[in-house]
Every structure is written in structure tokens, then in C-alpha cells.
Amino acid sequence: MAKSNITQLIRESVQGDEKVLGQLFALIYEELHRIAAAKMRNEVANHTLQPTALVNEAYLRLIELKKIQWQNRGHFFAMAAKIMRRVLIDHAKNKKAGKRGGPGRICVTFDEQIHGAENDAVDLLALDEALDKLAKADPELAQIVELRFFAGMNLDEITSELGVSSGTIKRKWTKAKVWLFHELKRK
């Protein structure tokens, strides 16, 4: 289904029509599962959260957001990225709390996203803290990181969703990577 159809269903879902919600669920679930599967491929081998569980939890949290007036597909998937981030962070915190006597660190790997090296691993909780700091300093940079890393969008998709030139997105993505690299290096 085309992006515009998803956008239309998102807008219609605000009315609570069960048929529309069912159609939307089928389309969004497939897209969210694709994103989650791609995201989970970047996780370290000992990660216990599976893509289906990530999608289910993110979807449940998304449908609880009844007061949001969805503007478009990009707005919806930006929120989905934030929620997937939150689910992963909550999972990491719970796992850390469950470890007695050990650091309980949950690490994620980035292909070229932040460090530039394929097998670099970053503590997910440290990344969350760094993203919170980045959001305070530059919300747009943080949004680009969330869309890139947590929603699995490539730079062209981010350009399309945010309605900004590809050159601007590339510059901001580079700036975000450098900022996060330096912030995470301090930890």
C-alpha cells in the first residue's frame, strides 16, 4: 500500500472506526516488524528481546496514544521510533535491574551509524542518556538519530519524511554522529 494510503488510514483511525483500525494495524504491523527486524539485526548476540516482542510492545503503546492528531505517515513513524527506543531502554533497564552483582550492561551495535566501525558496541542506556542530551541541545538532530537508528530509515526516507533537502539531512546526520561519538566516548 502506498505511503499516502497509510497516511489516510492514520488520519481516519482517530475516529475509532474498527474496520479502519484493522486495516491500519495490518499495514503498520508489517512495517513496524520490518523496522524491528532490521533494528534487531544490529543488536549484540546476547540481546533477549525479539523483533516480534518489540513490535507488539511498541504497537500496544502506540494505540494507547488516543489524543494524538496524526499529521502524516512521517509523524506516526517518528513516534513509533521514539516508542521503540523507549521499549528497548525499558528492556535494558529491567535486564540491568535483574542482574545482581554485575553491571547488566546491554549493548547495541551500529553498522555505520555512530562510530563508523561495524562491530563497535555502545551501552544502550548510555546512548539513551546521550540522545536525551542531544534532544535538549538540538531536537532536530535527535529526531534524525531516532528515525535512522530506531525506525531504521535511510537518509533518503528521512529526507522525504521531514521535507528537508538531502544535503541538509546528510550534514545534520554527520553532525549528530560526531556529537554522539564524543558524548559516548566520555562515558
Overview features:
mainly alpha; 2 strands; two-stranded antiparallel sheet; 187 residues; 68% helix; 3% strand
Explain how this protein is built.
The protein has one domain (3-185). It has eight helices and two strands; from the N terminus they run ααααββαααα. It is globular. The longest helix is centred in the middle third of the chain and has 26 residues, at 73-98. Helix 3 crosses helix 4 (73-98) and helix 6 crosses helix 8 (166-185). It has helices at residues 3-13, 18-41, 51-63, 73-98, 124-137, 139-150, 155-162, 166-185, and strands spanning 107-109, 121-123. Helix content is 68%, strand content 3%. Mean pLDDT is 76; it is low at 100-104 and 111-119. The chain has a two-stranded antiparallel sheet. By secondary structure, it is mainly alpha-helical.
**Helix/strand class:** mainly alpha
- CA radius of gyration is 17 Å
Regions with little confidence, pLDDT below 50 for 5+ residues = 100-104, 111-119
What is the terminal separation in angstroms? 44 Å
Question: How is this structure best summarized?
Answer:
The chain has 187 residues and is mainly alpha-helical.
Show the helix and strand layout.
Layout: H1 3-13, H2 18-41, H3 51-63, H4 73-98, E1 107-109, E2 121-123, H5 124-137, H6 139-150, H7 155-162, H8 166-185
Antiparallel strand pairs: 1-2
Helix pairs in contact: 1-2, 2-3, 3-4, 4-6, 5-6, 5-8, 6-8, 7-8
